[in-house]
Amino acid sequence: MKIVDVRATTVTMPLEAPLRHSNGAHWGRFVRTVVEVEADNGLIGLGEMGGGGQSAEAAVAGLKPYLLGHDPARTEALRWMLANPTASLYNNRTQLLAAIEFACLDLQGRELGVPVHELLGGKVRDAVPFASYLFFRHPNEDGTGEIRTAEQLVAHARGLVDEHGFSVHKLKGGVFPPDYERECFRALAEAFPGHRVRFDPNGAFSVEEAIRFARGIEDLDNDYLEDPTWGMNGMRRVRENTPIPLATNTVVVNFEQLAANVRDPAVDVILLDTTFWGGIRPCIKAAGVCETFQLGVAVHSSGELGIQLATMLQLGAVVPNLSFAADAHYHHLRDDIIAGGKLPYVDGAIAVPDAPGLGVELDRDKLAEYAELFRELGPYPYDRDPARPDWYPLLPNTDWADPS
């Protein structure tokens, strides 16, 4: 095969409600960019990346001189063509590389008539378990969807358990004062005896606040405490002061950082993100390092539609040391751009697609519908909160939203 065209389409996907986080909010929608890589045999491989809008589309178009005529099976050469570490000092293309890698692996699977997991060593599990991934939420314009109190949080989680079968619950924090969020987190854990929990304030706490928070939840059935503070040395200091395992998707997101963590441990669980690491294949390499040094592994979510979810499932299928349930924003979506609609959860897990390639197809009507919605609504500032227009966080943060 040879690549003959590369296209990008940015879409806006509505959410059930605006999701709050330590740096701002998702304003009731995700902005994602769908990438299509076409080969000379007429096959089209699918990729996906976050946000960007017109800038993402322009960035993908800018890769055409590199990609036209390239064999999509040569994914290792692709890495050096697009993201040579020296060249990347001037133009960091890691997330662009990931979207192209997804599409090239998809093309290979389609050409050979096999799922991507067969190209990556074969699956060791048929389904990937997921955590519920809970957020504090702003209300919609009609007043529905708000999650601000412990009671609202528990009620929402109970609905997700009933609908999807989750038995692991992750709360995204860093929004309200730490003591308030700890009360909410404890209420969540106590409402579901026998379930496991995890908390993630996105690095918003000081080291000392993180230690204090950890000591207030040590009696719960914690999978881990994710990014309680920012920076590897800060994480190391927290780790020295709590028995709860620490996890990250911020301070170990490349191989140099992974090596530093092996030499001087600061993190126990590495959350592998197929976008942040530059593709599925780098995540598998990183998982191999983690297997060697007995570090925990989970699959991280950066706000996916069905194409990226498929990459997460293909990754989760082949990693033997996947020791924790994966994260996914997926259940917050109102719709998807893949044929057949959203992939279903069964007993808190999603089946690994076995169709050729990534195992999903574009619904072109949905793609057009949500591309038009993006043109109508435009982008939104991920690092701003619509309810606090002049606010921005410091690290460590001390200016919390008012839970009342």
TrEMBL record:
GO terms for molecular function: glucarate dehydratase activity. GO terms for biological process: amino acid catabolic process. InterPro entries: DgoD-like, Enolase-like_C_sf, Enolase-like_N, Enolase_C-like, Mandel_Rmase/mucon_lact_enz_CS, Mandelate_racemase_C, Mandelate_racemase_N_dom. Residues 150-245 form the Mandelate racemase/muconate lactonizing enzyme C-terminal domain. This is glucarate dehydratase. It comes from Kribbella jiaozuonensis. It is an enzyme of class 4 (lyase). Pfam families: MR_MLE_C, MR_MLE_N. It comes from the Bacteria.
